[in-house]
Amino acid sequence: MLESNGAKFGMKPAIHSEIFWNAPHLFESTRAVDPLGFDALREAMSNVLAPFLTGATRHAEHYVAVAVGLRWAKSRASRPLDKDIWPLFRAFERGLLQYWHLCPGNRPARRRYLGKRRIAEICAGKRPNVQAPILRDQRGVGLLGSYIESLRAIALVKPAQIVIDEEAVTQLLGDPRFEWAGTSPGNWQSLVEIFAGVDLRSAWPRLGHRLFDLADLSQQRAQMYSAARSISASPNADWVRLAKCRTLLEPQQRIAAATGLTAELEARLREMFGELLKGQKPAVTRAMVGRLAKLAGQVTKLRVIDTVWPSEPALAKVLRLHIENAARGRLSEKALLEWHLEVMRARGTEPWVQDLGERSALKLPTDRADPDFRLTNLQTLLRETKWAE
């Protein structure tokens, strides 16, 4: 029998996630790490390189688990409506994460979710609990929030809903269906036996075909297929090297070539903006202006804004103007402040700082992962699904 408190499953101590159910939200008035609009630009670039993914879609096991949970929730809901399906899926996710905590195996996906601290607390108790909150905003930042847009993009979930497409999901998952009464199991042994039914590894290859096959002639399908082919041929290459790969479409080649340039331009401007937030004068030297002009000029030459934002929304116009100004060597502390103010105006949000010399209460994070434009997620999903053309 399994131990009632889950202490003897051979579990390692839980790794704390960065957002917990009781953690306060920071910078509610604006995006926390995007004062110059580069997060939005990188997202738009990523939509060209890997349009069916998001920054949070990392694992085949997560995709399949969400599809299983949504199919089960729809089958038990009184009506096929989001408001009836969501409470059932919420309980399903809580039970699933308790199962993953107890039985992580060698699956990295079972350790990569938000709310680990709360799940560990629940699993230290005498019995499972699928009613206990695990995140302040479970729908927004839990598994469903991370995967729903991608599931809609590959037509497993209906547009603007959390209602599955029955035929598509059955093709992915097959039968038999996951069965559960929806209440907290009385003991840990029962929870493990119930949620082991979510482990449909046989569906992973079918997910790969759904994500990467050239099933129709749509632009996004062609982009995803081309990216998958390129990475399959060079699994360890970065986007800059992949830009030379002829299996990428021409717009993708340009955007891939621009990824390193954009990341470096952003990093250098963020450093300068961080000093400006302290009320200090950034060190805008002639050498620095020249280096930034070269980077911005290359981004402009590759027609990044035109390619990723063909309709040119307000934020795109702002970024185009300031990147082109930087390419002409027109960069100063005043120009950097105006860049920030115009980005905030385009978004309709409050600026972090209004005037030069003003100290801001907001600070840029000092530790920040290098942006990879969804490359790691794409590589992981190709490896897990074993997709091949």
Please give a quick description of this structure:
With 389 residues, the protein is an all-alpha fold. Helix content is 53%, strand content 0%. The protein has 17 helices and no strands.
- Regions with pLDDT < 50 over 5+ consecutive residues? 1-31
Strand content: under 5%
Q: Please, how many domains?
A: 3
Order of helices and strands: HHHHHHHHHHHHHHHHH
What is the averaged pLDDT score? 91
Distance between the termini: 45 Å
What is the number of strand segments? 0
Largest sheet: none
3D shape: globular
Helix content: 40-55%
How big is the Rg?
23 Å
Number of helices: 17
Summing up helix and strand content along with how strands pair, one would put the structural category as mainly alpha
Topology:
Layout: H1 38-49, H2 60-76, H3 82-102, H4 116-123, H5 138-141, H6 143-153, H7 166-173, H8 188-195, H9 204-212, H10 219-233, H11 239-242, H12 250-277, H13 286-301, H14 304-308, H15 314-327, H16 333-347, H17 375-385
Helix pairs in contact: 1-12, 2-3, 2-6, 2-7, 3-4, 9-17, 12-13, 13-15, 15-16
